[in-house]
Automatic annotation (TrEMBL):
Gene source species: Candidatus Schekmanbacteria bacterium RBG_16_38_10
Origin superkingdom: Bacteria
Name under which the protein is recorded: Gfo/Idh/MocA-like oxidoreductase C-terminal domain-containing protein
Length: 251
């Protein structure tokens, strides 16, 4: 008998509870999909082709910064995007967090802004920086060796910035300002993205597994723990960490 479960993110409010959930899933041989849709975005499906076509080199860094977003509610999706695109494990986390706004999902929850900085294996980086006193939508940028892609979730198109491959002015040993090379449609139907998660769960396709979601939770909770201890935190968080059992009011 097959068992299928869909779990909305975040998995839980503490790393201890996340581990308990993962152990239950493993013992009962359950197929679990977690509510991250990054596998199906126009950006992720076409990124390798875009980078190759425009000679952008390796993806080095993902950054999202600006106004009103929550480091947990929204930031978790950027953390998962890094898991999808980097294909490497997080190593260290630094967090500086503010909790000045109540979350409309419940009086027991908070909305977090501030800073989350994560380093990954293979010299990759994720930077999240939000300020909820601003009403500006944050931007998202993917930084490559030779250029970047502006890929904000609410933009109608992806803006590819780089250097023309056959240009004598393409920098080799110095920095320079990229120029616009292309604009690509970015109209994702988010309702259909979630439909794809359910379809793939039942039919053996790609979706966010419990293992990937556990890595995402390590990063998200580490940002909050790092803020508590006032220093960077090495991953993974294990049971000997003082804050392993602490529940953070996240959604």
């Amino acid at each position: 008998m097959y068992k299928y479960i869909y779990i909305e993110k975040p998995l839980a409010q503490s790393m201890a509870d996340c581990d308990k959930m993962a152990n239950i899933i493993e013992r009962n041989n359950v197929s679990v999909a977690v509510g991250f849709y990054n596998d199906f975005l126009i950006l992720t499906k076409n990124l390798d082709e875009i980078a190759k076509e425009h000679g952008m080199g390796k993806l080095l860094k993902i950054s999202s910064q600006g106004g009103a977003l929550c480091l947990s509610t929204n930031g978790a999706h950027f953390i998962d995007l890094a898991s999808v695109l980097f294909k490497s494990r997080p190593k260290e986390v630094l967090g500086k967090v503010n909790t000045t706004i109540k979350n409309p999902r419940g009086m027991d929850y908070l909305i977090y802004d501030g800073l989350g900085y994560v380093t990954y294996e293979n010299d990759k980086e994720l930077l999240l920086s939000f300020n909820n006193r601003s009403l500006n939508s944050p931007e998202m940028v993917l930084h490559f060796e030779y250029g970047y892609i502006e890929a904000s979730h609410d933009s109608e198109y992806l803006r590819v910035m780089g250097f023309k491959s056959n240009s004598k002015d393409r920098p080799k040993y110095r920095c320079d300002r990229p120029v616009e090379l292309a604009r690509i449609n970015n109209n994702n139907d988010f309702n259909k993205l979630f439909d794809r998660i359910f379809y793939n769960l039942l039919n053996g396709g790609v979706y966010c597994s419990i293992d990937r979601a556990m890595q995402d939770m390590q990063v998200l909770l580490s940002i909050l723990i790092s803020d508590k201890i006032g220093r960077r935190l090495e991953l993974p968080i294990r049971s000997d960490n003082y804050y392993y059992h602490e529940k953070f009011p996240i959604t």
